């Protein structure tokens, strides 16, 4: 990711750009400081040119916005990232949310080997050549997501605490007829106390009511996809998300994905690691 971004006077009046958190197919995410109260926030830069026409919604409260923003603005849950505001820039829609989580790096003073076992030093990242109107080179921040946090030395209690929060967030979304559709460890941010929040609602949608409206397109990660998705069948959403929860639990418990290819996913075939705690095995088998 490189280049220069022109930001509006409104943005530069209210925010100061910080570090790079990540980038993907539809844009990238930076941290920023909100000038009014010095609060650090996350800003997702969504490229307008990459937003499908059918992903825009006329929201009665905030106007015409990408569905991701409309959904985040409508939900409120302790395990879902909080919506702050959005800004309509020339080439990007800026989705601004709270910033949650801690950098999972052994050098982080918030972490310690006793409270947070399995810590390791993160690889040093080269500065990105992305520049904004505030003229600074952007530093890549160590990830705050569950992928970086996962370690097989986690206790059963910690594993249960993490997974229970994820289940509560998904249950809440389903109760509102919403499916996330990209549930994975990299879309869950986590702090030093193992408090988690679900992020990245770029693939989120409302649960279709009729079979003819079932989803036929999948923008998520194949390793977490259910058999019907891998087989390219139409799917409703919630059932596939339950499958993703099982894959996620296996990943949290054992530090690896249960499936290595599409054939294994379609067959539902997986093997437990040879040396495992019987309690952890029963935890994963029950789901």
From TrEMBL:
Keywords: ATP-binding, Kinase, Nucleotide-binding, Serine/threonine-protein kinase, Transferase
Positions with a binding annotation for ATP: 21-29, 44, 98, 145
Start and end residues of each Protein kinase domain: 15-287
Gene Ontology molecular functions: ATP binding; protein serine/threonine kinase activity
GO BP term, pick one: negative regulation of apoptotic process
Highest taxon listed in the record's lineage: Eukaryota
Active site per database record: 182 (proton acceptor)
InterPro entries: Kinase-like_dom_sf, PIM1/2/3, Prot_kinase_dom, Protein_kinase_ATP_BS, Ser/Thr_kinase_AS
Record-level GO cellular component terms: cytosol; nucleus
Family label: Belongs to the protein kinase superfamily.
Entry protein name: Kinase-like protein
Naturally occurring in which organism (per UniProt): Neocallimastix californiae
């Amino acid at each position: 990711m490189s280049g220069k971004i022109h930001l509006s006077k409104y943005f530069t009046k209210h925010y100061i750009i910080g570090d790079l958190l990540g980038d993907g197919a539809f844009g990238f995410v930076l941290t920023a400081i909100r000038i009014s109260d010095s609060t650090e926030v996350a800003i997702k830069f969504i490229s307008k040119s990459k937003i499908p026409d059918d992903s825009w919604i006329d929201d009665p409260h905030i106007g015409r916005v990408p569905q991701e923003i409309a959904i985040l603005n409508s939900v409120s849950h302790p395990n879902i990232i909080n919506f702050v505001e959005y800004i309509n820039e020339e080439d990007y829609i800026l989705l601004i949310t709270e910033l949650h989580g801690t950098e999972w790096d052994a050098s982080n003073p918030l972490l310690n080997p006793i409270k947070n076992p399995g810590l390791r030093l993160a690889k040093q990242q080269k500065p990105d050549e992305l520049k904004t109107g505030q003229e600074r080179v952007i530093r890549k921040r160590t990830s705050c997501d569950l992928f970086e946090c996962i370690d097989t030395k986690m206790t059963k209690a910690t594993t249960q605490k993490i997974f229970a929060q994820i289940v509560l967030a998904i249950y809440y979304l389903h109760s509102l007829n919403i499916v996330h559709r990209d549930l994975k460890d990299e879309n869950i941010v986590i702090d030093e106390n193992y408090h988690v929040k679900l992020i990245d609602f770029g693939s989120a949608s409302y649960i279709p009511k009729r079979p003819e409206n079932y989803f036929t397109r999948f923008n998520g990660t194949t390793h977490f996809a259910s058999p019907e998705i891998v087989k390219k069948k139409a799917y409703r959403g919630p059932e596939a998300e339950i499958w993703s929860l099982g894959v996620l639990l296996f990943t949290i418990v054992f530090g690896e994905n249960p499936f290595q290819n599409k054939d294994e996913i379609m067959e539902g075939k997986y093997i437990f690691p040879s040396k495992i705690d019987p309690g952890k095995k029963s935890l994963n088998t029950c789901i």
